[in-house]
Every structure is written in structure tokens, then in C-alpha cells.
Amino acid sequence: MERKRFLSSALCCLMLVFNASGAYLTNFPQKLIQPDGKVIHCFLSGDEYYSWLHDEASFTIIQDQETGYYCYALNQNGMLVASKYIVGVDDPASAGLQPGIQISPEAILKLRKQSTPDLPDEPEPEIKSALMNAPRTLNNIVIYVRFSDQTTEFEPKQATYSSYFNSAETGANSMYNYFREVSYQKLNIVSLFFPLNNGKEIKSYRDAHIRNYYCPSTAQNDSGYSVTDGGTMRNEREYKLIANAIKFIKNQVPSSLNLDTDKDDKVDNVCFIIRGNPFIPTTSCSILLWPHAFKRYYSDIYIKSKWINCYNFQIEGYLDYKQTGVLCHEMFHSIGAGDLYRCVSNGISPVGPWDIMAETTNPPQSMCAEYKARYGRWINLDSIPEIKVSGHYSLNPISSAKNNCYKINFSNPYEYYMLEFRVKSGTFESSLPGTGLIIYRIDKSACCRNLNGPPDWIYIFRPGGSNSVNGNIAEAYFDASVGRPAFQNTSYPACHLNTDSKDNISIENILVTGNTVSFDVRFYNVEYSNTDQLPPVTKAINQIKTSGSVVVKNADRILFDSGDEIFLNEGFEVKAGGQFETIVSSCGSK
User: Fold this and answer.
1) Are residues 325 and 372 in the same domain?
2) Which is nearest to 429 in space by CA: 365, 361, 516?
3) Which residues is 416 bridged to in the sheet?
4) In this structure, are 111 and 164 located in the same domain?
């Protein structure tokens, strides 16, 4: 519930975070300098709640707090400690160390929950997206920020950033073009840059504090924020930083600019571009200087009488690396969507490269149809066509505004399938692993999107995959031409519930032809009870039966085709003029 504006400013500093979501970095190249001057090259992975350094072979790296040297890490009682083996000097494999070690899953969850205490269990649509189904323009305020010890200004690359945000040229990889495409031309995001500049030379707000003030406190940084207070100091410092930056530029924002296009009394979005690179962790803690999006219950920070609810943090170094990909990921957070990677992966990627909120590519790939419907409202969530009867079906690509997805209910009432066609082409889908039908499971009982999985809210079926085995998410697309023509109990992958038990469906003869994918749907066991209108053809793999009043009307022509058995129980009736035929294929009888 929103708080009243007459709360004191002292209370305002104790901000309650509604949602904090960030980009998941994978193998972001880093250059570190050892105390003896030796340069080492490694990688940074993770999100703003938990991240780690590692080498090319995935051996985890941590800084020794006593010597300052970057060493290979050991896991000691669920936490990381520095070993005696120095990066760039010793071979971790020969020393018997294990690659990929992390802090305990319980510790990772604790770090996230400290920063997202109010993350809702059910991933319901945000009120902020209520007007998305009608065409509109969202005006995004972009503010450059640097720190007192950063004496030089941003490089003169305003034209480059303008292109990332606003280019409307056909085929341009920009946030403007991305949201135009994924929203079916319903959403235009126009970004305006502050402090005002000449279109080439960037001007920035220079904060009174040094950069380390906004980093975790360590033995090497005594000016940083506490990592033992549950994130209170971190949030207070972030709040003051954005408040001061807004105060610095707000009089430059034209009074004629509509900052609240969805009419909720809040600025639609603010994006801060922070000078420098993402913070390199030396201990396990949540990080402020990391690409992320924040939403707050209340704020006393205003621009033109509209208060700041949603904002994005973009870090210069990572923005230059991931460009439009990270811009679109964080902006979709502001629209309402959550991350789709697991907080504790255990080697499982439930969605992988098929959704921008799971893995961010550049150019960015589309979000899945479920996310388009639930958060963008660019597909009507309540009107997604449901396949209830056996038959032949086809789909257009997800980039098409019509005939772009199907829903099939599970035998379990809390779960359902979604089917969509993904095509590896164009500006924003060119980074997909392949072209074909994508089939995924929605589990409405799963908590907090995919963060606490398993079970996962969205799980894409893939060869060799289960709740405990990742399989090959890059081969999740079905198409006869790549040897994956069917999805059924005995296929590879097999259809299964979140318990890994098999389900009552077969999707067969999946074939990509030009710009469509076609397929046949059959159910293993079908029962009709008190049916007003029977489908003309019902094909079941095992059994068809009736119960209660089931009538073949006088103008109907009905076929029941079953692999094993057909039971026509009491109450089944064929009226005069109706035609009814049965086939039990395994017996060869009619």
C-alpha cells in the first residue's frame, strides 16, 4: 500500500524497497592488478545480490583481505575464503581446487531477501502496465552521474548513447526500436539526456562523495557502506545519490514534457548512467554500483510534481559492453517484469537465451509470450487461445501481432503449457540459438517468478532437461528438420509436470515452413461429460470415454479415433440425422 506524502523526511530515508531487480552478468571481462603490479585477466559473473570473479576455467577468485592479492577461493563452511594459491602464479587444477565453487545456496538467498523483502509470491501484473495495450509514448529521463574523485568527464560519446536509446532507423539496434517491435508498435520509449548537452560532449552531475563511498566496506575501503546491516546503509546512500542528482537537473526538464503518460502521479522512468565499471566484489554482499532497477513504495523526490517510483542504474562500463541489451532488460523491469534466472541456479537455466529477462544478449532477444501478455499487456492474457481438442494447428512468429501463441491446460490445475514460434532472424531475434516451436510450462504455484526454483514459474522444455538436470537449453526449439518433430511422453525431451511425472498430451508433426510452424495435438486420454458441442474429430493416443449426457446432434458428423479403447457409457446418444464413427487403431477395427 502506498504511503501518504505527509510522512516526515526522516522517515522517507527509511525507504521500503518494493522490488530490486538487476541484470545478470556472465563472463564480463575484467583486468585486475596484483599488489606487485602484475596484471591478471579474468571474468565477472552474477547480479547485484551476489557476484564473483573467476578465470576462464571457472575457478573462483577472491581477494585476500590481509595481503591484497587475488587468490583462488576455497569454500569454508558455506563461505568463500582465499587460498594460498595466487592468481597468475599458481595452477588451481594442479593444486586440487574445484572450479565453480560458490557460497552456500542459503547464503545467496539471504543476500537477495535482504534487498527484496517485499517481493510478491505471485507474479501478478503491475498497475503501471495497465495502459500498455493502448499506444503511448513513455518519456525516459536519463541522468549522467560521476563522483568527486572522477575529475574527468564522460568520454564525448553522446551520439553513441543517443543511438542506443533513441535511434528510429530501420534495423537499428536501439531501445526505441526494440520496444516498438515487441509491443507491436504500441510503445514508444523516448529518452532525454540531462544535464543538457550539445549532442556530443557529455555533461554530468558530480556527486560530493568519492566512488568508494558507494561500494561495500572492506579492509581496503573504509569509506564504504556496511555489509552487515541488511542493506540499510546501502539503500540510504543510493537514495541520497539519486535525490541529489534529480535536484541538480530537475529545473532543466521542460515543463511541457509529459513525465506521467500512464497517469499514476509518478514519473514513468528515470535512468542513471554511472561513470566507471561495475564494482568488483571482494566479499559476498549486495552491490549498489551494478546495473539494476528499483521500485519504491514511497519517495519524496519529485520532478514537476511527479514522484520517482521506478528508476534504472546503468554502469558505464557494462553499458558500453552490453549496449542495448542491458538497457532493454532494465527498462522491462520498470514496466513490471521480473528476472527469470534462478537465484541459486544449481546449474539449471529454466529459460536460458529465449527471454531477455533470463539471459541478456545484444541485440536483445524478445521476451516470451507469457511475459508480453502478463506485463506488457501487448497480448491479451485472458484471450490467449486455448487448445482443448485434437487437431492441426499453426503459429506465426512471436514478432507477429496475431496468431502468435497457444495455451494448453495441464492435468494439474496449477500448470499449463505455452506454445510460441521463435524465428532466428531480424535485428532482435538474430541472437537466438535456432528457429522452431518453443514449449514451456507455467506453474502458477511457484513463488517469486523463477528466483526460488525449483519449481520454476516458467520452465522451457529442452533435450535432456528435468528439474535436476539442465539438459541443452540451446536446443529447446522443435522442428522436424532438426530431428525434434514431437513433444510427448516418450519424446526427447518428454512432456512432464514440475514433479517430473509425465503428462497427458502429444504434440506431433512439428514442422517449420517459411514463416509459420504447424503441428498436430493429441491427448492421451479424453473424457467428455455433459458436452454441448463435440469436436468433429477426437484423436486420443490411449482412451476415449463418455460419462453423463453426451449427445451427437442431428447435424453432427463425429469421429472418435483412439489407440486402445473407446467407452460409450450410459447417457451417450446419437440423434436422428447425426453421424458417428469410431476407430480403435491398435485393434485395426472400426
Assistant:
1) no
2) 365
3) 409, 442
4) no
Q: Are residues 110 and 150 in the same domain?
A: no
Average pLDDT value for residue range 197-208: 96
Residue 196 has pLDDT above 90, yes or no: yes
* Spatial distance between the Cα atoms of 529 and 537, rounded to a whole number of angstroms: 16
- How many domains does the structure of the chain reveal? 4
What is the model's pLDDT at position 30?
85
Residue 341 lies in a domain: no
pLDDT band at 523 (very low <50, low <70, confident <90, very high): confident
Question: Could you give the CA distance from residue 48 to residue 238 in angstroms, rounded to a whole number?
Answer: 13
User: Three-class SS of residue 166?
Assistant: helix
Give the number of C-alpha atoms closer than 13 A to the C-alpha of residue 450, restricted to the C-beta side.
26
Q: How are the residues of the chain apportioned to helix, strand and coil, as percentages rounded to the nearest 5?
A: 15, 30, 50
φ and ψ of 301, to 5 deg: -100, 125
For the chain, the C-alpha Rg in angstroms (whole number) is 27
Domain span at residue 320 reads: 9-16+120-335
Residues 6+ apart with CB under 8 A from 254: none
Measured CA to CA in angstroms, residue 223 lies from 24, 97, 216, 226, 359 at distances of 27, 34, 8, 9, 34
Percent of the chain clearing pLDDT 70 (strictly above): 86
Average predicted confidence (pLDDT) for the chain: 85
Residues 559, 447, single domain; the answer is: no
Highest mean pLDDT among 240-254, 292-306, 343-357, 496-510: 240-254
**Is the predicted pLDDT of residue 277 greater than 90, yes or no?**
no
Contact (CB, 8 A) for 300 and 341? no
Do 139 and 199 share a domain, yes or no? yes
Predicted confidence band at 132 (pLDDT cuts at 50, 70, 90)?
low
* Cell numbers given for 295: 521500485
| C-alpha span between 54 and 58 (Å, rounded) | 5
pTM to 2 decimals?
A: 0.85
3-state DSSP assignment of residue 364: coil
Report if residue 590 sits inside a domain.
Answer: no
Q: Is residue 510 part of a domain?
A: no
Q: Which of 47, 564, 10, 34 is nearest to 329 (CA)?
A: 47
CA 494 to chain CA centroid, Å, is 24
pLDDT of residue 128: 44
